[in-house]
Amino acid sequence: MGTLSTHVLDTSLGRPAAGVGVVLESVDGTAIGDGVTDGDGRVGTIGPERLAAGDYQLRFASGAYFAARDTEAFYPEVVVVFTIAEEAQHYHVPVLLNPFGYSTYRGS
């Protein structure tokens, strides 16, 4: 079963995005786990220790993050859908975030 981590960077500030709510869900919307990014923009533990092969999604509360900083933002949330294909691997899903855009990729 695969392991999972995530990391959020605020590219408008050039630093980690602390305080972003993150929910891990199955693709049918069932919550599996949640957390809030720490001072390094990481969620220490989210969901079960291991995930079975299949499709999942991470839901990032980007709108609430920017609202807490009194910053107008276009996306109220960012949802990243991904596949755990090989259960023996680690999956890292970073998000680069700013008020009017975001990007993501499979990290290491």
Strand and helix layout:
Blueprint: E1 3-10, E2 15-16, E3 21-26, E4 31-36, E5 54-60, H1 62-67, E6 78-84, E7 90-98, E8 101-104
Parallel strand pairs: 1-7
Antiparallel strand pairs: 1-2, 3-4, 3-5, 5-6, 7-8
Number of helical segments?
1
Q: Largest beta sheet, briefly? A: 4 strands, mixed
Integer average pLDDT: 94
- Total strands: the figure is 8
- Work out the helicity level: under 10%
Give the overall shape, derived from the CA principal axes.
globular
Q: N-to-C SSE series?
A: EEEEEHEEE
Beta-strand portion reads: over 45%
Helix/strand/pairing category = mainly beta
Radius of gyration: 13 Å
Distance, first to last CA: 16 Å
- Low-pLDDT segments: none
Strand order of the largest sheet: 2-1-7-8
Key features of this structure:
four-stranded mixed sheet; 1 helix; 45% strand; 108 residues; four-stranded antiparallel sheet
3D architecture notes:
This protein has 108 residues and is mainly beta. The chain has 1 helix and 8 strands. The protein has one helix spanning 62-67; strands at 3-10, 15-16, 21-26, 31-36, 54-60, 78-84, 90-98, 101-104. Strands 2-1-7-8 form a 4-stranded mixed beta sheet, with no helix packed on it. β7 (90-98) and β8 form a beta hairpin. It is globular.
